[in-house]
């Protein structure tokens, strides 16, 4: 890059990189400032990816940024810790193997219907959220477009969507699939990363949100999550942007109610009239910008954001590739989900919401053959367990996870040589995300669309001129879609044209 | 999410005696003294306290404000201490005017707004020291102040019950204090604060008030309240001192051009209907808004609103003849409804029929002619409707040079 | 009259909604028969005497939501209905402290200030926010929900009406509304208050009667459902019906009789008679057969369509949707005759706040744990109770000096994970509740003269409310507005011509509101080319 930057992007996570790449491709000179010694943010570093099984970037974004990351769809193996031999299913898209034909058919119908409904709603993902105040012609057109797609679902699917949209995934799977493993999978898909149990109303919406990307299928980048980071970083630099690592931002500079640049924690000042922050909304607004630049109601709404994460990450170094109870090896393009049914997912949530570690945690895991590590995301681990994250609590968590995995993986206990753990509180500390939440804020109807991250702060543009939010805390939300970064950069570019 | 709590133990619950709160009106720090003088037994509810509506005669109590000296208990006002290194920043973040220009020992009138630039309340701000402010206002603001102060190094305390207060108002009020040996009043300018002694009691005096006349407000510890009252009353005979009720104060308030929340405007924090609150520009308080200072609450909204014509506006009006027009509707050319009257009064001092009127744009702003109010008069149980001409005038209705004169005159 | 078997309309189920629909139809000039399985009218709004001298409000026990339009139009005061607001309430915690609720604004502020000055201040903001939502929803109660899929002209105009009301709120309030309608009551209250006991006191309204916990999204709406009532224009106020809740249905029955209606009690419905997709009458369990081209069911959808209609007369998708409809009873009830007024350890001697709803709670997580028990198929070990002694205000319900206590209990499951609702379990359930109350009221137990214990199963058996759900079905979003009871059939009509629904399973739901009955009557009369008479004030 030559010359001073004309835009600063705070945070080199995937959303920050997407935003920077888009700005660069539109002729700007963005500078990405990343606090850690690696880009990728929540994708994590090569040693310990926080998100070992990313959802893929939206294809539209890959096209716009000319990124070509090969991905392969992952097959999901759902295994019940209660009955590991008969209780194993293989799921790929809407196809379910290992259950009864009736189960397979019911699963196919439900997943395909959800995929159709999610697809009809997906048009909203790559647009700024509709506005509540004085919607312009573009907003109305976009709404009309979504309305049209919804009508095209047909009466049956549309009625169904209007009924289930705000309901809970537990009831949905109970109605459509009955109790058991297929329901466990959907209950996990709907709740993973959040702080709502499957019986919480609103969890069908999070399921639909996931279904809107690749029909809900996980896509593993060839080369692992790191490959995605590298491709995005390359897209930034190729287009003339710059990425600086080890450059934590301490403060956003404001002059005359306009963003003027940032101050780094080493005291260095970098000036630019456009600042995009992919840090969490609370971090950006209350820590970096400071409440003094914001109205008190704003600050209050920002403080009230629900953003307590409930995912712990554990890595286990293994002597040999893990084998399922039936003897098959867990392949690199397979994901293991450990839960017996939607009820056990809820039970794990019960404990976590009261600040207790669940006795029988539910989780997903994948095996990285290169490092010989089993990477596990454990769902419903309280952010602040009673007594805090003491050695005893960490030990208790690890023991229960090992026990659960021992039920579904043959000889697991004997194969483990080492382990590492990041509790939600560790993710909060290490990645500066308040609450350690995957999505920088719970994906709930009261924090979605024009209410994401909170009322008044939607639409990426902040009240201080030239400051934008471009992280997962903004519409449409988390998972590795890149959409918030993409939408925010588009909003910033549109504002500059005016 | 859910924070942990203790499990429900099965043990018996230990008896505690927590008395029930007072229901009905609560006696204030001067209650015994006022009750003894309240020959009308007429009380009103002011923030839950028993406040006298009238002690014996509204008329004579009113004239005492403009002719002698009056004593009125203002203890029910909400009072907050704002203290700490960031106190000035917090107060500046709260109010629309530049508080940096307020010196220690001075008081100012200020308003504050929500994020939409709608007025929340008005009040007086006392700068007691560099990093120590006191806010006095009509409506509870603790939650709002805490929101404003979040993230700043400041403490906010509700000191409403820690401070008893009296309003000593009228042309002979300075003379009365002088006779008690209060030297500080000679140099005390309007909106100044001084620490004095009345008897053995420490009292803060500020040259402030709601009457538009020469007058003081006295701030003291509640245990001293009765003694200060007694000293003032004992000294007051020579100066025509009279304890008064709320109705007389209200008359002087209207003459003096002050607005009252819940009467003349509705706080943005209490309005149920979203179109009921008002902006400072609608209230005619443009001078209270300093858009040049850095961010304060509602600034961005006010910047936008400053460029727009208010949809409606509050005006001081004078109405022909002598019948007060409270709650009347205002018409253009006797036909079209264009607004309404809030406070109204036949001013015994000005001999004018005065009122505040809300007028929809453009009336009052550009079209000031041919405005009428509809007054209902009761004449021996029979109601009559009267259309009276009204015209827009300047505030305040009553102004006297003795209010500002320093040192103050004796009469 | 006994000989006549032909009517213009038959209403099945003489609960309050059935009677209200019947009243409006009779007032429109139809010849109407109301049939009721129980030996008395009233459904879940009854006053029964189970021990000499005492009258219980056996099921529903307080009144607020009953629409004033209905009371006025059906002249219920003339037929003996008197609703008295109650003025206070309290929550006692296990440390011997209490939070007292006063309808006197200043007393309430002092009481809140005693706990937290911030909470006192924020209560004003909270009350305003809830009041704004009440103002928004109130006009929707007495209207038929639009069908957003079919979109006939009246659906479009109703949708536009709702959208316009929503839009008129302004952007800030629109956002607040979306949040309010979807948030959990716990998080909603956390925004305003810091004191656990204050939040616990207010949270109860968010979970009464539902299979959700205070931390479940959607419970703020349930709170609204309990707040949107009024007593004489005091929105959110609750009151007692003088003589118990049966006074409401007795007044309705009298009003119905005065309009020429006929009531038959003591024999329930056997089946609806359907010919060629059209209802032609009913057959009762005792074999009596009545003909009518209009039949209105006040029963819930499971009873109406699964138990009393031939499956072959209904579309398969409709049957599936009805089977999916969720009841999930979650409430139990104790009615207790007391030998005197109990004392409460936490309450001072001169306490004036015992004349309303009393609760024994530490905080919201305690309610959530009570909910966790219910999810696991157990009654709550430490249940939420809504405890009232109406005889402090209404002396007609007990002998002089004696008292009647109504104890609503949340949560109790319909299906117990272990065992059944037999006498032993019912007694154990009652003991759990009485033990909890006794911790706060040492003399309570020894004052008990008689008690009636009602599990969800008992409520189902006695009132016909499936699974004992007091709202005739959960008040969750998949079962509200145009989804209530079944998407596509939310306008009181069923797939069978001439067969209508008027129970709480229809919009806007339960709570002795009466709106479903009145709305159903309006739709029926509109199909018959007539108009409902809501009286001069409507």
Verbal overview:
The complex is a heterotrimer of chains A (498), B (411) and C (538). Chain A is 36% helix and 18% strand. Chain A has 498 residues and is α/β, with parallel strands linked by helices. Chain A has 3 domains: 213 residues, 3-Layer(bba) Sandwich (FAD/NAD(P)-binding domain); 112 residues, no CATH class; 121 residues. In chain A, the strands form 5 sheets. In chain A, strands 6-5-4-15-16-17-13-19 form an 8-stranded mixed sheet, sandwiched between helices. Chain A has a 5-stranded parallel sheet with strand order 8-2-1-12-20, with helices on one face. Chain A has a 3-stranded antiparallel sheet with strand order 9-10-11, with helices on one face. In chain A, α1 packs parallel to α9. Chain A is globular. The mean pLDDT of chain A is 93. Chain B has 3 domains: 142 residues, Probable tRNA modification gtpase trme, domain 1 (Gyrase A, domain 2), CATH 3.30.1360; 81 residues, Aminomethyltransferase beta-barrel domains (Alpha-Beta Plaits, 2-Layer Sandwich), CATH 3.30.70; 85 residues, Elongation Factor Tu (Ef-tu), domain 3 (Beta Barrel). The longest helix of chain B has 12 residues. Chain C is α/β, with parallel strands linked by helices. Chain C folds into 2 domains: 181 residues, FAD/NAD(P)-binding domain (3-Layer(bba) Sandwich); 296 residues. Chain C is built from 17 helices and 21 strands. Chain C has a 5-stranded parallel sheet, covered by helices on one side. A 4-stranded antiparallel sheet of chain C has the order 18-19-16-20. A 3-stranded mixed sheet of chain C has the order 7-6-17, with helices on both faces. The interface between B and C is large, with 41 and 53 residues.
Q: TL;DR of this structure?
A:
Chain A has 498 residues and is α/β, with parallel strands linked by helices.
For the record, the CATH class of the largest domain in chain B is: Alpha Beta
CATH superfamily of the largest domain in chain A: FAD/NAD(P)-binding domain
Structural domains of chain A: how many? 3
Might you state the CATH topology name of the largest domain in chain B?
Gyrase A, domain 2
Low-confidence stretches of chain A: none
Overall 3D form of chain B: globular
Name of the level-1 CATH class of the largest domain in chain A: Alpha Beta
The CATH topology of the largest domain in chain A? FAD/NAD(P)-binding domain
Record field, number of beta strands of chain B? 19
Biggest sheet strand line-up of chain B: 10-11-12-9-3-13
Taking Cα atoms only, what radius of gyration of chain A do you get, to the nearest Å?
22 Å
N-end to C-end Cα span of chain B: 66 Å
Identify the CATH homologous superfamily of the largest domain in chain B: Probable tRNA modification gtpase trme, domain 1
End-to-end distance of chain A = 26 Å
| Mean pLDDT value of chain B | 94
Q: What are the low-pLDDT stretches of chain B, counting only 5+ consecutive residues below 50?
A: 1-9
Oligomer: heterotrimer
Number of strands of chain A: 20
Strand order of the largest sheet of chain A: 6-5-4-15-16-17-13-19
């Amino acid at each position: 890059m030559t010359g001073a930057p004309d835009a600063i992007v705070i945070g080199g996570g995937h959303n920050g990189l997407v935003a920077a790449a888009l700005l660069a491709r539109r002729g700007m000179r963005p500078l990405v400032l990343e606090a850690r010694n690696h880009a990728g943010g929540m994708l994590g570093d090569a040693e310990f990816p926080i998100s070992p099984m990313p959802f893929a970037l939206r294809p539209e974004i890959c096209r716009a940024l000319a990124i070509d990351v090969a991905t392969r769809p992952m097959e999901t193996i759902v295994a019940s810790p209660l009955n590991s031999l008969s209780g194993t299913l293989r799921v790929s898209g809407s196809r379910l193997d290992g259950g009864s034909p009736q189960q397979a058919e019911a699963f196919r119908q439900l997943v395909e219907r959800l995929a159709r409904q999610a697809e009809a709603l997906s048009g909203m993902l790559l647009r700024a959220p509709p506005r509540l105040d004085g919607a312009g012609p573009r907003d109305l057109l976009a709404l009309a477009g979504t309305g049209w797609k919804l009508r095209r679902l047909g009466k049956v699917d549309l009625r169904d969507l209007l009924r289930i949209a705000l309901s809970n995934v537990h009831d949905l799977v109970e109605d459509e699939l009955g109790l058991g493993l297929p329901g466990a999978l959907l209950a996990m898909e709907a709740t993973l990363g959040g702080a709502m149990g499957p019986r919480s109303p609103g969890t069908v919406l999070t399921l639909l949100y996931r279904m809107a990307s690749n029909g809900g299928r996980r896509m593993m980048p060839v080369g692992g999550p790191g490959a995605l980071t590298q491709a995005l970083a390359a897209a930034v630099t190729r287009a003339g942007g710059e990425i600086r690592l080890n450059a934590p931002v301490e403060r956003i500079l404001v002059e005359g109610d306009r963003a003027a640049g940032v101050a780094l924690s080493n005291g260095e000042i970098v000036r630019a009239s456009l600042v995009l922050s992919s840090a969490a909304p609370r971090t950006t607004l209350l820590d970096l910008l400071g409440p003094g630049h914001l109205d008190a109601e704003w600050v209050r709404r920002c403080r009230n954001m629900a953003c307590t994460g409930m995912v712990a990450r554990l890595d286990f170094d293994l002597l040999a590739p893990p084998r399922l109870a039936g003897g098959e090896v867990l392949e690199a393009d397979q994901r293991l989900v450990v839960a017996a049914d939607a009820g056990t997912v809820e039970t794990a949530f019960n404990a976590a919401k009261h600040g207790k570690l669940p006795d029988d945690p539910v989780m997903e895991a994948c095996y990285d053959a290169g490092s010989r590590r089993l990477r596990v995301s454990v769902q419903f681990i309280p952010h602040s367990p009673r007594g805090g994250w003491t050695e005893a609590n960490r030990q208790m968590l690890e023991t229960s996870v090992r026990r659960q995995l021992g039920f579904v993986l043959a000889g697991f206990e004997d194969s483990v040589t080492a382990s590492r753990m990041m509790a939600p509180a560790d993710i909060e500390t290490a990645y500066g995300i308040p609450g350690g939440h995957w999505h920088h804020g719970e994906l709930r109807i009261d924090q979605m669309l024009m209410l994401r991250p909170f009322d008044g702060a939607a639409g990426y543009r902040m009240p201080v001129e030239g400051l934008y939010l471009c992280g997962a805390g903004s519409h449409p939300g988390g998972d590795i879609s890149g959409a918030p970064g993409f939408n925010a950069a588009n909003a910033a570019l549109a504002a500059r044209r005016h | 999410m859910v924070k942990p709590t203790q499990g429900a133990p099965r043990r018996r619950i230990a008896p505690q005696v927590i008395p029930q709160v007072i229901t009905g009106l609560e006696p204030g720090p001067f209650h015994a003294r006022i009750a003894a003088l309240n020959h009308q037994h007429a009380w009103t509810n002011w923030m839950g306290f028993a406040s006298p509506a009238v002690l014996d005669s509204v008329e004579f109590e009113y004239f005492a404000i403009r002719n002698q000296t009056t004593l009125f208990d203002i203890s029910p006002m909400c009072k907050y201490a704002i203290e700490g290194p960031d106190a000035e920043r917090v107060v500046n973040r709260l109010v629309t005017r530049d508080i940096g220009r307020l010196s220690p020992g001075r008081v100012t009138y200020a308003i504050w707004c929500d994020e939409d630039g709608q007025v929340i309340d008005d009040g007086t701000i006392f700068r007691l020291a560099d990093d120590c402010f006191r806010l006095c206002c009509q409506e509870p603001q603790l939650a709002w102040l805490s929101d404003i102060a979040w993230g700043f190094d400041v403490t906010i305390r509700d000191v409403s019950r820690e401070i008893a207060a009296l309003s000593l108002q009228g042309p002979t009020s300075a003379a009365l204090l002088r006779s008690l040996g209060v030297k500080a009043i000679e140099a005390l300018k309007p909106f100044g604060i001084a620490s004095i002694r009345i008897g053995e009691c420490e009292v803060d005096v500020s040259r402030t008030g709601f009457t538009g006349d020469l007058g003081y407000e006295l701030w003291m510890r509640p245990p001293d309240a009765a003694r200060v009252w007694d000293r003032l009353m004992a000294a007051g005979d020579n100066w025509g001192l009279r304890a008064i009720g709320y109705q007389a104060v209200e008359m002087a308030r209207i003459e003096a051009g002050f607005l009252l929340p819940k009467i003349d405007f509705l706080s943005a924090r209490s309005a149920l209907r979203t179109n009921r609150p008002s902006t400072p520009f609608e209230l005619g308080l443009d001078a209270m808004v300093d858009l040049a200072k850095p961010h304060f609450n509602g600034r961005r909204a006010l910047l936008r609103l400053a460029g727009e014509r208010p949809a409606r506006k509050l005006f001081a009006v004078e109405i022909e003849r002598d019948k007060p027009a409270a709650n009347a509707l205002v018409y253009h050319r006797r036909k079209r409804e264009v607004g309404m009257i809030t406070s109204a009064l036949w001013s015994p001092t000005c001999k004018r029929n005065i009122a505040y009127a809300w007028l929809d744009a453009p009336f009052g702003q550009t079209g000031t002619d041919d405005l009428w109010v509809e007054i209902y008069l009761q004449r021996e149980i029979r109601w009559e409707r009267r259309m009276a001409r009204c015209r827009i005038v300047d505030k305040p209705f009553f102004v006297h040079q003795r209010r500002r004169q320093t040192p103050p005159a004796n009469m | 009259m006994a000989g006549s078997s032909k009517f213009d309309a038959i209403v099945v189920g003489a609960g309050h909604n059935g009677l209200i629909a019947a009243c409006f139809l009779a007032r429109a000039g139809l010849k109407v028969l109301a049939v009721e399985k129980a030996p008395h009218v009233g459904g879940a709004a009854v006053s029964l005497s189970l021990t000499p001298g005492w009258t219980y409000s056996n099921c529903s026990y307080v009144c607020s939501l009953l629409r004033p339009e209905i009371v006025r139009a059906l002249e219920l005061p003339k037929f003996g209905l008197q609703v008295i607001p109650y003025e206070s309430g309290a929550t006692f915690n296990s440390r011997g402290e209490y939070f007292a609720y006063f309808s006197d604004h200043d007393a309430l502020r002092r009481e809140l200030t005693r706990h937290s000055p911030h909470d006192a201040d924020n209560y004003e903001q909270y009350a305003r926010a809830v009041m704004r939502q009440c103002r928004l929803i109130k006009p929707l109660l007495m209207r038929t929900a639009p069908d957003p899929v079919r979109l006939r002209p009246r659906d479009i105009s109703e949708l536009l009406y709702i959208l316009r009301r929503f839009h008129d709120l302004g952007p800030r309030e629109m956002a607040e509304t979306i949040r309010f309608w979807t948030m959990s009551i716990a998080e909603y209250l956390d925004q305003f208050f810091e004191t656990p006991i204050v939040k616990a006191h207010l949270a109860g309204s968010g979970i009464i009667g539902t299979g959700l916990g205070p931390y479940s999204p959607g419970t703020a709406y349930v709170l609204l459902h309990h707040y949107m009532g009024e007593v004489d224009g005091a929105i959110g106020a609750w009151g007692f019906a003088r003589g118990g809740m049966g006074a409401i249905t007795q007044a309705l029955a009298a009003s119905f009789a005065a309009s020429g209606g006929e009531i038959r009690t003591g024999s329930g419905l056997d089946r609806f008679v359907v010919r060629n997709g059209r209802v032609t009458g009913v057959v009762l369990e005792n074999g009596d057969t009545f003909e009518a081209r209009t039949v209105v069911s006040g029963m819930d959808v499971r009873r109406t369509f699964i138990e009393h209609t031939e499956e072959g007369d209904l579309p398969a998708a409709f049957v599936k949707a009805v089977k999916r409809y969720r009841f999930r009873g979650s409430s139990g009830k104790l009615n207790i005759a007391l030998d005197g007024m109990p004392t409460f350890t936490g309450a001072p001697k001169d306490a004036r706040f015992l004349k309303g709803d009393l609760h024994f709670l530490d905080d919201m997580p305690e309610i959530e744990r009570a909910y966790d028990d219910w999810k696991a198929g157990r009654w709550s070990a430490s249940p939420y109770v809504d405890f009232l002694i109406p005889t402090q205000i209404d002396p007609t319900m007990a002998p002089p000096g004696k008292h009647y206590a109504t104890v609503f209990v949340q949560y109790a499951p319909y299906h117990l994970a272990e065992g059944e609702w037999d006498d032993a379990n019912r007694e154990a359930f009652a003991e759990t509740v009485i033990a909890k109350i006794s911790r706060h009221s040492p003399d309570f137990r020894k004052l008990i003269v008689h008690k009636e214990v009602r599990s969800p199963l008992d409520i189902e058996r006695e009132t016909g409310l499936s699974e004992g759900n007091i709202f005739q079905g959960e008040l969750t979003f998949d079962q509200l507005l145009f989804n209530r009871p079944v998407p596509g059939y939310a306008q009181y009509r069923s797939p069978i011509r001439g067969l209508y629904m008027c129970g709480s399973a229809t919009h806007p739901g339960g709570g002795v509101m009466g709106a479903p009955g009145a709305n159903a009557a309006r739709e029926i009369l509109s199909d018959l080319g007539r108009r409902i008479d809501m009286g001069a004030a409507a």
